[in-house]
Amino acid sequence: MPDTGATDEVGEGVPLKQLAIGLGDVHPDLLEDAMSLAVVVLTDEGGERSLDRGEDLGEVDLVGGPCQHVAAADTALGPYEAGALHREQDLLEIRLGKIGAFGDLFDRRRPGVAVQRERQQRAGGVVTSRRDLHRIDPVTEAMLAHCIARRDGPGRYPRPMQAGSGQETAVRPAYGGGALTSVIPTLVGGQPAPDSARWLPAPLTGATAVVLLVLDGLGWNALETHRGSLPRLGAMEGGPITTVVPSTTAAALTSLSTGLAPSQHGVVGFRMRIDDGVLNVLSWRRSDGRHAPDPFSVQRHAAFAGRPVPVITKSEFSTTGFTEAHLRGVKFVGWRAVSTLVEHARRLVDAGERFVYSYYPGIDSVAHEFGLHDQFFRGELAFADELVGRLLDALPRSAALVVTSDHGQVHFGHEGQISLHAVETLVDDYAGDGRFRYLYARRGAVNELCAQARAEYGDQAWVWSREQVLDEGWLGPGPVTNGVRRRIGDVVLAARGPVAFVDPNLPGEAQLLAGHGSITPDEMLIPFVASRGTR
Is residue 240 reached through a cis peptide bond, with omega within 30 degrees of 0 on the bond before it? Predict the structure, then answer.
């Protein structure tokens, strides 16, 4: 009998319940609208074997092969990483102290005016009020066109890359620069990315408080396409940044809250192998019905640099595993009607909160169900624009509203659904998303699966081995623990054109009309725009 429980859990109403009919395990894309709020086989050239949870933490060398080094489960932390304090987050509160004037949040070593001066002196990717707000400014446009993704490491900016036949483009995530991973370290942690003056919108300078609104599923290209009919969003200042790979809600929202890339926090997809089963991260359910892992064992890093940030999101998410995994320790503020999101934000800012995180899932939900070429999608964008307007009108002029997203969308329709029947005899399990499909090979079949996948799907996807994905830094910088490494498929299909690779275990995926997860501009480029309140 179809399991629609997870869809009920996210509270998206009758249309999504109907859409979930036929799903044995609720698909990523139906649940990704639900989040404000991570089996595997060990590969060693010749074979794989199942791991228990302890092994998944990567604490020992399970292969036992000669000259093999296994990274510890808790590797040394980078400059923006919050330590895994095993729930003792008050220690971070003591160390970091109180948030000061918002100008200092950009850089604790320089006042906000210095940041503004640097912005004026340097070429930036920010659209100012004196520029044409109906297109990307020339600097950003040149940046996007000039920066070519390479194998020699991630770049600082969104980087279109020619690939395959030369007709497809890919965007390399700008980890460490203008990317989703830099937002919280810059705004909350006081540790701005080196290039932050280029992509931080001018209204943030000198703001006494900031409300961050995450519009799930709003890509930069969609905003540009419909800008003329979005008066409040269209008038905001800023430009595009990149999301993470995979460009999917579970990975991206965790990267946003922690400031870490998927390779670092370990949530590497909507569905991924944990122990000996597949975990649906958004519903926090295993496909085999067994008990799901403790969220802390899957994602240990603190959210928002360990600060108790108020998070305004749907009330249904208050007790979910994914909320615990990526929003641990926050001040949860639930909403059931969208209008109350606005009022909660107003009251929190008036009460003295310096940073407020808010989340709205409607664009993503409508895009999955109705696609991008229907009046439903245009109507939803107009509704989101009205939400932005109401927030601006509710906030004082000293506060700034920042709008960003977790990913964009690609319309593929029913005709873009691709079966994986050609490789099923070589596949032990499937995970990921339709546009970023993980294939876990049967024992001893890794090389054969990779070759067969390239032969069958090489004209429709970037086909990578796990090692290639990690070596080229698509999921973030290394080193990557063995536990995280084994969550990634042995073979990855990253969709190029308007297609999706349907998991045979999730036939309901074929009902979706749009999706995300891959590395195309429509999915990877997201807005980072801001305006001051008008009250």
Answer: no
